[in-house]
C-alpha cells in the first residue's frame, strides 16, 4: 500500500456523505472515500485491500 498526503480531499464519504479524509484506490479499479469515523472503523480492510491511499494532511489515521 502506498500512502500519499494531500492538502484537502474534496470528495465526500461513500458511507455517510461527510467530508472525506481518506481515499482508497482499489486494485480492480475504482476508489472509495471515507470520513474520519469510517476510515477508523475500516482501517484493517483499507490497509489490506487498497493499492494506494490518499490521506488529508493533519488527519491522524491508525494505519500509518
TrEMBL record:
Domain of life of the organism encoding this protein: Bacteria
Pfam families assigned: DUF7455
Domain DUF7455, first and last residues per copy: 9-59
The name this protein goes by in its record: DUF7455 domain-containing protein
Organism, scientific name: Virgisporangium aurantiacum
Lineage: Bacteria, Bacillati, Actinomycetota, Actinomycetes, Micromonosporales
